């Protein structure tokens, strides 16, 4: 792929009418962590009122120069969620530009919280929790490839995820310790949201899109155990926030029901 964007770059050219967002097959292949990321970016782009087409590919992960999904083709290729948000912001479509410095600092801090807890918890549960790995992850991850390639790719991906989890201490945790971290994270989010519609003012920001992507995916992904979703459902204002964004930005999307 040519013209790959990895870093921030100011770009004043208009948003194209043929932007494409690439992600894995949604019904039979995509896993919880990738689905959360893809839904985050879909929602962020919708909040910015930008046109784009979702392109489903069984090899989307391997098409991506960074090996992560989603990735955006918008003239150049923009890889990974944070880079996509920065790219869109640099084109003048920012949902948080009017926040004061204190709120901008809080937004960064809470984004770090979600990325350091929910993201790693999703990876742990998907790739390290035995029942989920055997019943969900293995059959879905390799579904787009013939045997033995599907087995090889799944094995390599699991090793990659474990390597990612170890420096952050997640790999050595028990499942109950992971659930406890998720509960603490949700309590922080619930306290921050309080009785407000959105986390930082009367209008949504990219953080609302981020939380929605993770919460909606956790609530709607079938797993052998419902403990993960039950923890999130224990915070009614977080669930209501998720439902509010779904109704606002996916009013006629039957696939989200």
TrEMBL record:
Domain Metaxin glutathione S-transferase: 183-245
Top-level division of the source organism's lineage: Eukaryota
Predominant cellular place of this UniProt entry's protein: mitochondrion
GO biological process: mitochondrion organization; protein transport
One cellular-component annotation, GO: SAM complex
Domain Mitochondrial outer membrane transport complex Sam37/metaxin N-terminal: 38-158
Protein name, per record: Metaxin-2
Organism this protein belongs to: Laodelphax striatellus
